Amino acid sequence: MTVQPDLFAEPHELEDPRDCWMTKAYVYDPIHSEFRFKWDLAASEENTKCPRFISIDEDALLQDWTKLEGPCWINPPFSRLDEFVEKASRTILLEDAPVIVIIMPITRNEQPWFHRWVVGRAAELRVIQTRVDYEPVEGIPESGPGFGSQLVIFRPGHKGPTVLGSHLVDKP
Questions:
Q1: Could you tell me if 134 and 22 are in contact, meaning their C-beta atoms sit under 8 angstroms apart?
Q2: CATH number, residue 27
Q3: How far does CA 66 lie from the centroid of its chain?
Q4: For a designed S-S bond to 48, which of 37, 43, 69, 100 qualifies (C-beta 3.0 to 4.6 A apart)?
Q5: How far apart (Å, rounded) are the C-alpha atoms in residues 124 and 92?
Q6: What are the residue ranges of helices labelled H in 11-165?
Q7: Residue 10 falls inside a structural domain
Q8: Among candidates 161, 94, 95, which has minimal Cα distance to 123?
Q9: CA Rg, the chain, in Å?
Q10: How confident is the model at residue 148 (pLDDT cuts 50, 70, 90)?
């Protein structure tokens, strides 16, 4: 399937090599078993978690996500986190929108964009009950992040408040 560009978005280069960090299997696998993701919307051939992905060069923010069949996973570049959250929030209002799950730092909850695009729009907000480690890119040493993480789950047709819950992962 060829994804089509969104005519209102602009191309963007990644600002930080850590934007390419990959979600480790101990975090992704339990989430995938629940949602059965078909698309990874912020990936490369080296770090994708799904059978289909949108690469950095294709820029997921330039694509029409309603054309994607099946649930979508996003471990967004943190330098563009607000843009991915806004796009997910807007996409689920459209006909044929997929379920979209975003993993993101919990330290962004105080941001105005978080309250505008997540609170009351996302179906669920699940706090991950341990600090998540990421697979680093070459040249950047591995280290655990200094923040907790959460899953923001956007479901098409969701009406009502965002449900707060927790998500347990078995860290090796």
A1: yes
A2: 3.40.50.150
A3: 16
A4: 43
A5: 13
A6: 25-35, 81-91, 112-117
A7: no
A8: 161
A9: 15
A10: confident
Asked whether the predicted pLDDT for residue 16 surpasses 80, the reply is no
- State pLDDT tens for residues 39-53: 999 988 888 889 999
Phi-psi region of 93 (alpha: psi -120 to 50; beta: other; left: phi over 0): alpha
Report which residue type is found at 155.
R
**Tally of structural domains, the chain:** 1
- Residue that wins the pLDDT comparison between 36 and 23: 36
Spatial separation of the C-alpha atoms in residues 79 and 44, rounded to whole Å: 16
Mean pLDDT, rounded, for 55-71? 93
In the chain, what percentage of residues exceed pLDDT 90?
51
What is the domain extent for residue 159?
Answer: 19-167
Which residue in 95, 99, 49 sits closest to 71, CA to CA? 99
Largest Cα separation within the chain, whole Å, is 44
- 45 is written with which tokens? 């051939």
Confidence band, pLDDT 50/70/90 cuts, at residue 137: low
**Residue 3 domain-assigned?**
no
- Distance from C-alpha of 95 to C-alpha of 29, rounded to nearest angstrom: 28
